[in-house]
Write a structure and sequence with these properties.
carboxypeptidase; peptidoglycan synthesis; serine-type D-Ala-D-Ala carboxypeptidase; five-stranded antiparallel beta sheet; 2 domains; hydrolase
Length: about 375
């Protein structure tokens, strides 16, 4: 369907996508978790949800954001001197000692593999001076990435009033973090040896899914009394990557595997537009050419339940007309993609080439003949 107008509300449409239920396949997996979500990493589409927007304590899945900020704001090789504050941080730890030196990279492994709360505080102090300053960065970063229902009070997920997230937000944060190649390497590592004061620290990844599910390649466990057993998991199969989040689950590994298998077995990618594909012609006034082709700036792919191409709807928005000069790749429209009336994604439409403006005398001459005609 072609609509001759370019006015849209993309942010509003994005909110619609966030808060509308996903199109699910006929079969839904059994999930014991109190809150869960399954998200396609490439498109950000939600393929399954159960109380996905319910605010809950995230426990150590908080460390996904802590590690991301460390990777974006620090140098992996920089040496960090452990403070008394970091060394005294309780619960799960890698037994840091005040005054010892580790690299930021080693601390990131300590945080993500062994779930070291002390590692997180050391990271926070190195990046932002204090944990309080770092937490402020965490909340700002979360909002930037679209995690609108999250609020963090500390850098490691230890129980605290006002420290919460949602399954959906954790999936969003993780999809973003997985774009970082170092983050990918760390969360898929099963074992790592890092230095200690007089001994070597042998870190075993707490994510048992890496050993029990062939396609698993991340991400992070979390457990507290309030949060219950939690797991943010990722898996890749047939060039598709999915992220599952289960919060307060009696069977976090079983739930995660069921969700990931559900996504791989019941959904598939459908490329709706290819970069450079011609969508239509737009008239050009006062140019050497009377029209320019509108082409897709990028690929547009949607994840659909197997065989359900009938659910896809494209809405095309084009400017009514252009006046030369027109520059190549100038934005002249957009395509919005919907699945079962839920906004999914969009791509710009751009001019396929440049069109120079006619000399003034030729424009006047043309208008003269048009008037007497």
């Amino acid at each position: 369907m072609k609509i001759n107008m370019l006015r849209v509300l993309p942010f509003f449409l994005l909110l619609l996508n966030v808060y509308c239920l996903p199109v699910q396949a006929a079969y839904s997996p059994p999930v014991a978790a109190e809150s869960a979500v399954l998200m396609d990493v490439g498109s950000g589409q939600v393929l399954y949800q159960k109380n996905a927007f319910q605010r809950r304590p995230p426990a150590s899945t908080t460390k996904i954001l802590t590690a991301l900020l460390a990777l974006e704001g620090g140098d992996l090789g920089q040496v960090v001197t452990i403070s008394k504050t970091a060394a005294s941080t309780g619960e799960s730890s890698i037994y840091l000692q005040a005054g010892e030196n580790l690299t930021l990279e080693e601390l990131i492994y300590g945080a993500l593999l062994k779930s070291g709360n002390d590692s997180c505080v050391a990271i926070a102090e190195q990046i932002a001076g204090t944990e309080a300053n770092f937490v402020q960065l965490m909340n700002e970063k979360a909002k930037q990435m679209g995690a609108m229902d999250s609020h963090f009070v500390n850098c490691n997920g230890l129980p605290a009033e006002g420290h919460y997230s949602t399954a959906y937000d954790l999936a969003k944060l993780t999809c973003y973090a997985l774009q970082n190649p170092v983050f990918n390497t760390v969360v898929s590592t099963r074992e790592k040896v890092i230095r200690g004061p007089g001994w070597q620290r042998h870190l075993q990844n707490t994510n048992q899914l890496l050993d029990t599910y062939t396609f698993a390649d991340g991400v992070k466990t979390g457990t507290t009394n309030a949060a219950g057993p939690c797991l943010v998991a990722s898996a890749t199969r047939d060039n598709r990557r999915l992220v599952s989040v289960v919060l307060h689950s009696a069977n976090r590994y079983g739930d995660s595997k069921s969700l990931l298998e559900y996504g791989f077995n019941n959904f598939s990618n459908n490329k709706v537009l290819t970069a450079g594909q011609v969508i239509g012609d737009i008239p050009v006034c006062d140019g050497f050419s009377p029209a320019v082709q509108a082409v897709s700036k990028g690929d547009l792919t949607v994840v659909i339940p197997n065989g359900r191409t009938d659910l896809i709807e494209k809405k095309i928005y084009l400017v009514d007309g252009l006046t030369a000069p027109v520059k190549k790749e100038q934005k002249i429209g957009r395509v919005d993609l919907y699945m079962d009336k839920v906004y999914i994604a969009s791509t710009d439409l751009i001019a396929s080439g440049s069109i120079e403006r006619l000399p003034a005398y030729r424009i006047l001459w043309r208008k003269f003949y048009q008037n007497i005609g």
